Amino acid sequence: MTRRDALRLLGSASAGGFAAQIGLKLSATTNALAASPNDVTTPPLARGAPSSPGRRALIEAFKQQSEGLQDKFEARTHESDWTMPYRLFRPTAKGKLPLVVYLSGSGGLGDDNKKQLEFGNIYGTRVWLLPENQKKFPCYVLAPQTNRGWAKYDTTQDDSGPAKVIPGLGEGNRLALEIVDALYREFAIDQRQIYVTGQSMGGAGTWNMLSSRPRFFAAAVICCGGESTENGAESLETPLWAFHGDADQTVPVALSRDRIAARRKAGGRPLYTEYASVDHNCWQWAFTEPEMIKWVFSQRAS
Questions:
Q1: What are phi and psi of 233, to 5 degrees?
Q2: How high is the pLDDT of residue 155?
Q3: Which position among 10, 44, 124, 299 has the lowest Cβ density within 10 Å, counted as fewest Cβ atoms?
């Protein structure tokens, strides 16, 4: 993939979100949308509005407590028809353990095997590694890196403007799933506890991955999922918790609202939390929700 193609992918994944990804903008109050009859009970959210001292303290505490955890990921590469760099955290606990797959936002695009752990991606990669979480819920964590996006894009039609999203399994997701399959063969991974999460571009990739492997994942967590051809009704049996800020200037909140509505209409029972007055960086709140980790690991694939 050329640098031009990569930049077009960045555009399609909303390059304007990069400022938010590096934490330049915080917002105001929190709101969880009312559950529909098809919804299940949403775990209690952290108390306080996003701008409240208590809620900001949770985010600041996470930053301090998680600093240095990025060094616990080992650098690896996967060779296929192209090379995908990835990072892997290996727990010290023994026995069959869960695997969490994290798909980065557009700030992680590249092939340096670093950016998928940086910027706004620190929340979705480090939260699983916090000592208290590894003590209660030891798990492997996979953070692949793509320079081709996660959903499927057509970069052949026009050299100007964002790449068009088209149906099908994304090139980045195809290799990420190859890595998942390889890790399952290499390590003692519990096949009933493989989880996927992603934000922005990676949120679009999570929808795409669920569509390509229905019933495979035990649960999914999606933050401000970007554009893809999936409408939200894919892999209905997979427990899902989606988050979005209603003031998102990069990925319109209507995208998540429409997907959740379609999922509920089709008989799915997703959780949906919408943060009032929050822009694109909703992952800061989502991944510091105290009940989120418990909810994820309480799910098992059938």
A1: -95, 15
A2: 79
A3: 44
CA distance 242 to 108: 20
Phi, psi of 296 (to 5 degrees): -55, -55
Quote the CA–CA distance of 174 and 96 in Å, as a whole number. 25
Tokens of 281: 């960086």
Strand pairing class (219-223; 140-144): unpaired
Q: What is the pTM of this model?
A: 0.89
DSSP calls for the chain: --HHHHHHHHHHT-GGGHHHHTT-------BPPPPPTT--PPPPPPSS-TTSHHHHHHHHHHHHHHTTGGGGSEEEEEESSSEEEEEEE--S--SSEEEEEEE--GGG-SSSSSGGGSTTHHHHHHGGGSHHHHHHS--EEEEE--SS-SS-EE-SS-SSSPPEE-SS--HHHHHHHHHHHHHHHHS-EEEEEEEEEEETHHHHHHHHHHHHSTTT-SEEEEES----S--S-SSTTS-EEEEEETT-SSS-HHHHHHHHHHHHHTT---EEEEETT--S-THHHHTT-HHHHHHHHT----
The label of the residue with tokens 């068009």 reads 164
pLDDT tens readout for residues 248-288: 999 999 999 999 999 999 999 999 999 999 999 999 999 99
What is Dmax (Cα atoms) for the chain?
Answer: 51
Q: If we measure between CA atoms, which residue out of 70, 104, 106, 105 comes closest to residue 88?
A: 70
Give percent above pLDDT 90 in the chain: 81
d(CA 196, CA 219): 7
Residues 171 and 109: their CA atoms lie apart, in Å, by 13
What φ, ψ does residue 237 adopt, rounded to 5°? -75, -15
What phi and psi, each to the nearest 5 degrees, are found at residue 102? -115, 125
Residues 6 or more apart in contact with residue 88 via CB below 8 angstroms: 73, 74, 76, 140, 141, 142, 143, 183
